[in-house]
Design brief:
Blueprint: H1 4-13, H2 16-21, E1 38-39, E2 46-48, E3 51-52, E4 55-59, E5 65-66, E6 82-83, H3 86-98, E7 103-105, H4 128-144, E8 147-151, H5 163-169, H6 180-183, H7 185-199, E9 216-220, H8 233-247, E10 253-255, E11 273-278, H9 286-295, E12 300-306, H10 322-331, E13 337-341, H11 364-382
Parallel strand pairs: 4-7, 4-13, 7-8, 8-9, 9-10, 11-12, 12-13
Antiparallel strand pairs: 1-2, 2-3, 5-6
């Protein structure tokens, strides 16, 4: 575990010249964060307060139900998990701000099911205590100028549960890809009940109902949600996005959580944002083309996850570098935003995946890459190519 003293030493070692690079250009300031992010249906651009909203940010998976053991004073429950404490959330947000992040994709905050401290511990039963970290997170992001993207279900059966859980809890034995999650009306309705409970949550700190909170940029239909093959998934996406926006009246945007881009679904009425995740594919050359295709339908493009390590999930080297990826994003007029995987609070440790980033860096390589990401985020906030 990295000590607070070691982190302080690393922070002090960042050269003054690099620190200067984080400052806004003279006479400019980042766009105001108040108000809802909207989508221009003609251009596909995201908009905030009358100007284009372009961003870079981070995935922060442990801001709600967290998988690692807490280094910030939260008790570990019977499942070996904990609810993020205020100090852990504050430390993560401090790091995000230092990296100029304008958006955080809070992967596990509002999708957790099947655990004692989950949002939905058992089918149809919702846990007010499980919402508390997200209540606090929203209250703090509002004052920091950070927007949030919340996936609503996971494609996998990781620690926070996902589509397989909805099948088994409804008495259905899922096939290898839980295709019944997308086709069984009873299962779909149980997922809609989860969405409704989330959207209608009243924040104990702000008094705002989640579906009326401008701090939330978008609701994502799921994390890497897919059927393999994806034939018919656009009908499910249409039904879920309609439930979010029309039935429940959420004021925020909707992200299609299917990262396997399907042109048949690009014109869904209640979906605003489409995108990819990349750990190998798509390449830096392909991402601008994908984004341009999405924008041609009047929709926005979000690169929701990417590796910052030049390594893929299996540990092999990617055929491109972080520098190449970020340069391609910055140069594209059609990439609206991106978020790297994954930012943790400085004292939080997690052994899985090999993608944990602590600000300002645990070693020289991480520090250099974190600095690159921070400078990239600043550029995304001020550069609007093609305008």
């Amino acid at each position: 575990m990295v000590s607070a003293c070691a982190i302080a030493v690393l922070a002090a070692a960042i050269p003054t010249a690099i620190a200067r690079a984080f400052r806004a250009p003279p006479g400019l300031s980042p766009p105001a964060s108040t108000g809802f992010v909207t989508r221009d249906p003609t251009t596909g651009n995201l908009m905030l307060n009358g100007r284009r909203f372009r961003f870079s940010g981070a995935n922060a998976p442990f801001l709600g139900l967290a998988e690692d053991s807490s280094a910030y004073g939260a008790p570990v429950d019977a499942d070996g998990l904990h609810l993020a404490s205020h100090s852990e959330i504050d430390a993560t947000l401090d790091s995000a701000q230092a990296m100029n992040a304008k958006v955080i994709r809070a992967y596990a905050s509002l999708l957790s099911v099947g655990k004692s401290n989950a949002i939905q511990p058992t089918l149809g039963v919702f846990n007010s205590a499980g919402f508390e970290p997200t209540d606090y997170l929203l209250s703090q992001c509002a004052g920091r100028g950070i927007k949030l993207v919340f996936p609503l279900v996971d494609n996998y059966q990781y620690y926070a549960g996902g589509k397989y859980w909805y099948c088994t809890e409804n008495g259905v034995t899922p096939d290898s890809v839980a295709s019944q999650f997308f086709t069984n009306a009873t299962i779909i309705n149980s997922f809609k009940a989860h969405i409704s409970a989330v959207l209608n949550r009243v924040n104990q700190y702000t008094g705002l109902t989640y579906k009326n909170d401008p701090t939330i940029l978008a609701w994502e239909t799921g994390n890497e949600i897919n059927m393999f093959p994806n034939t018919g998934i656009s009908a499910w996406t249409n039904e879920i996005s309609r439930h979010i926006k029309l039935t429940e009246g959420a004021l925020q945007l909707v992200v299609d959580g299917n990262t396997e881009l399907d042109p048949a679904g690009f014109d869904l009425a209640y979906v605003d944002i489409y995108g990819n995740h990349t750990y190998v594919w798509p390449t830096p050359a392909q991402i601008p083309a994908n984004a341009a295709m999405i924008h041609s339908h009047g929709k926005a493009y979000f690169l929701g996850e990417y590796t910052w390590t030049d390594k893929s999930i299996d540990g092999s080297a990617t055929p491109w570098t972080l520098t190449e990826l970020l340069s391609a994003i910055e140069a594209s007029a059609h990439v609206d935003g991106d978020s790297f995987w994954e930012l943790l609070a400085p004292l939080a440790q997690f052994g899985g995946g090999g993608f944990v980033l602590h600000w300002p860096g645990d070693d020289a390589d991480m520090a250099a890459r974190a600095t690159h990401l921070a400078n990239h985020a600043l550029k995304m906030g001020f550069q609007h190519p093609g305008e």
